Amino acid sequence: MDMYGSPFSLQAYDTNRLIVSDIPRFIIFNQPVEFTIDASKAGDGQLEVDINNGSVPNRVKKLGNSKYQFTFIPILNDPHIISIKLNGHQISGRKINIFKLKNY
Predict the structure, then answer these.
(1) Are 72 and 51 in contact, with CB atoms under 8 Å apart?
(2) Which of 45, 67, 73, 82 would disulfide-bridge 63, Cβ 3.0–4.6 Å?
(3) Domain ranges in the chain?
(4) Which has more confidence, 16 or 100?
């Protein structure tokens, strides 16, 4: 955003305006888990998603208009904690424990 009479521009963001789709509470071992994040109303910034502090790889697919689909495959016996950050700021209430179900 340009500021009238100033040579500077201002970029703002609001982490509360990110929309995260429902993330399953229970997952199946070695099966993909998908969720989406809509950042279209949050403003400019770097969106980061880590699962178990980066120890579980994830893929991101840009859906357009600042919407993204994230996919990961649970490969650990531990709970999976998803951390979502915008410009380095943790999104409130978005650390999610996910427990795996036994593979039948």
Answers:
(1) yes
(2) 67
(3) 15-101
(4) 16
What residue type is 70 in one-letter code?
A: F
The answer for residues whose C-beta is within 8 angstroms of residue 68's C-beta and 6 or more apart is: 36, 37, 39, 47, 60, 61, 62
What is the full DSSP assignment across the chain?
-B-TT-S-B---B-GGG-EE----SEEETTS-EEEEEE-TTTBS--EEEEETTTTS-EEEEEEETTEEEEEE----SSPEEEEEEETTEEPTT--EEEEEEPP-
Separation of alpha carbons 90 and 71, rounded Å: 20
CA atoms within 13 A on the CB side of 57: 2
pLDDT tens digits along 1-44: 565 777 877 778 888 899 999 888 777 778 899 999 999 999 88
